[in-house]
Amino acid sequence: MASKPRLNARNANGARDLFEKRKDYDVYAIRTTQNRNVPARTGGENPVELGAIKDFTRDSRYLIGKASVEQYSILPDSSRIQKIKAVGDRRTVSAFDFVANSFDAMVKRYDQIIAANRIVPNENGSTELEVIRAVKGYSSSFRNYTEYNKGYYRLVVDNIPKARKDNISNLRDFLKIYSEVLLSGARSVPYFLSDYIRSDFNSQLTTGLVIEISSARYSDDGYKVENFLKSPNFQRYAKLAQEFGFMIDKKIPWRLVADIDSKAMRSRLMQLERDTEDVTSILQQYYTLVDTNDFIIMLNDVYAAYNFFIKNNSFANKTSSRQQEECSSKVIVREPIQITELSQIPTTEWVSLFVRLKNKFSGLMMNEKELSRIVILESQKVNYTSLENIVTSINRKFNFTPFDQGSATYKELEVKLRQSESLTDPLQQIKDFYVASLMNQY
User: Are 319 and 392 part of one and the same domain?
Assistant: First the structure.
């Protein structure tokens, strides 16, 4: 007799058990929605997607709302975020205006179905899908990124051995040690905002395209199966979602993701008098490119780190070899610097550091020969083109992830570079001292 798959994984399970259960969920989740019960194991193929139910770990769907079609990282325009009316427990939940409008319309239709007694009570007593209301929506990836990285440079500085600290006399000495730590440390959260946006640390809730109708734990597959996939109302919910332009995340079935290329979502955009010709035009209207700000983020991080170092290490005893023989010492007095003093380091050196940090935190990890070629190429452009163009060129070389086809060996995207202002809201929150302009004049 064929055994049934186990679709009840939880993080508390052992590693092997967890792996097998997660695999079972991935393979048999769609059959469960079709049968309203966990099917027996079969030797044949099982569908991985069905209608509105999509697997966001496949292809590049995980980048929806995180990257433009040219593969640049993007941030939602906060002025286009709107509160959702159909919310639960007096919550404040938001999404892009067209997404919020579509969800509110979907809930209105669902409420009509409820009033017509066409929603069936769940057999297990759960109230999921008996009523639909938004409980989670848009959150700021910039705010989350800032929180993740808050105080990281303090940790780095505090852990520099005293012997090395005593040898730091100026910005160049500090940058040498600080960059070594950044490039060699086992840091998990990406250093740059653009890399953070594209990473797993950045939830799809930050895209403005996502609404969740439950606050259940993402890790509890058993809950997903019992309260959603096996629910007598799940198929109706899935069909309604598709009708109103939403995709359902198979791994999180209470998560609705706006399909910005669907006719239903385009009609919502037309109601708002937006340009709705294609996905690119939608991204241009609702998102801001952020990649060119990475260079400024690096400069401001070094500036903050160095001044933090000086604040906590204003004095040091630095003894030369001759002074050691004479048993005397030299006291160093360190003074805070202004942001303009970063120009003490030639632009070519900043470019080299930027390339190497990009290499590490993008996850591509090119070999030294390939990396040196990029450093030389981009450094040669200094004083011949704007720093923004140099940064854009560097980002084009690293805007891949291990999930993108062909990224194992480096290649450039064969697309026309879309021009964009280097600093637009909400990135004005970054303490911008116009260092990029200063560096370009050096």
Answer: yes
Pairing, β 94-96 against β 81-83:
antiparallel
Mean pLDDT to the nearest integer, 310-335: 63
- Give burial (CB, 10 Å; 0-12/13-18/19+) of 124: exposed
Kindly state whether residue 41 falls inside one of the protein's structural domains.
no
Q: Which domain holds residue 370?
A: 141-201+291-441
- Cα 352 versus chain centre, distance: 25
Amino acid at 173: D
Neighbours of 143 (CB within 10 A): 12
Residue 10, in any domain of the structure: no
Residue 14 in domain:
no
Strand-pairing partners, residue 128, are 131
Q: Are 304 and 386 in the same domain?
A: yes
Q: What are the structure tokens assigned to 357, written together? A: 């940090």
Q: Tell me the CATH number at 270.
A: 3.30.1380
Cis status, amide bond into 426, omega within 30 of 0: yes
Within this chain, do residues 135 and 174 fall inside the same structural domain, yes or no? Answer: no
Count how many domains the chain has. Answer: 2
Rounded to whole angstroms, the Cα distance separating 197 from 187 reads 16
Residue 14 makes CB contacts below 8 A (sequence gap 6+) with none
Taking the CA atoms of the chain, what radius of gyration do you get in angstroms? Answer: 26
Q: Indicate the pLDDT class of residue 162, thresholds 50, 70 and 90.
A: confident
Could you give phi then psi for residue 433, rounded to 5 degrees?
A: -105, 20
Please check whether residues 266 and 233 belong to one and the same domain. yes
Query: pTM of the entire structure?
Result: 0.82
**What three-state secondary structure class fits 300?**
helix
pLDDT: which is higher, 398 or 105: 105
* Cβ-based neighbours of 97, under 8 Å, separated by 6 or more: 80, 81, 82, 272
Residue-wise pLDDT for 267-301, tens only, equals 888 887 665 566 677 778 899 988 888 999 999 99
Structure confidence at residue 71 (pLDDT): 80
Residue 214 shares a structural domain with residue 66 = yes
Same domain, 105 and 192: no
Residue 92, in any domain of the structure: yes
